[in-house]
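WARN retry 2 of 3 for item q-0093 after timeout on previous attempt; input resubmitted unchanged.
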Amino acid sequence: MTTSHEKDIAVIIPARDEEDRIAACLTAMAGQYTARVTVIVVLNNTTDLTGDIARNIAGRNDLDLIVLSHILAKDQGVETARRIGCNHALQGMPLLRYLLTTDADCMVAPDWIARNLAHLRTVDAVCGKVDLITGEADIFDGMARHLATLEGIYRKLVQDIYARHAPGCGDLAGTHGEAAGASLAFSRLAYLAVGGFDPVICGEDRRIVRAFRGSGHSVRHASNVTVQASCRLTGRAAGGMSDALKARIGGTDYKIDDCLPPAEWLVLQVGCQTLGPWPPQVPAQYRLNVRDLPRHIAILENFRNLGGLTPASIAPVDTEPCSHTGMLQPDRASAIVLADSDLQACRIRANSVPATTQTIGSAEPTAIGA
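OK item q-0093 returned
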């Protein structure tokens, strides 16, 4: 049997009390490049039988499995677990070339590893597409579908702006745009170059993708790399997918995905040519409510019609200096920081945008906002 010291692919799976999900997660890995892969499950403050079940499933499916168990501090969580797993692979696998990661409540596609490797031949990092587990998706039957459609429309408009104007984001156009820890893959060299996962309580996945782009590494949002995620409403990380699901099911209004900034801010940044790399992170106080999206959609659709979204075509509209915009910087900690003066500048530019000239088009609903 091939040992971990002879393998070049590590799959990192953080897990906290996942005895009900870990078997399906690991079974989905069965037969996928077994001779080259070591699976590292990082138990985070786990009190159930997750580790025992993981070892049992690995034995049945000929998986080279390492189980690490850690007690983490209150301000640590999945991001620390991912980092621990990656560090273990870096230190214990001399031939390591690629790092892949998913979550313990996910099931990867049968070709997940193969398709990630195919993309990693030409790019530094791969963001897979996250779907919901088919048998659990009926949880959305009572959801207001028109609200999800609004978010899907707005997401496509925002991604189009980033694809046209953000540094190193030209490949983003027409993709799913997701950057979720449920399906990330990257080369060892790229991971080391950006310093690995950040010690943040939530959002480590998007931060590392932003770091890749901000440092000039190539990122691909691949629709043929897929995983299915659980629809559970009791999650393991505050602000994670479970919270997003609850928000979309539980009411007639909710905060949209925190990678979708206000339209006025986007217009201002493009005009000043200061748009940072995808995906941005919008602070809680500036996140948009889904019922406010028609106005923001109208602004971006009008903006798109102004000469094809070229900076030169909209620059004359800006009557305010750009030095105070609180711009998104192209680094791993990028976040929108808007002061009152920034909001005033946004209003000036928004008021200069012509009246609506295009009807809101159709787009795929965004159910999970990830």
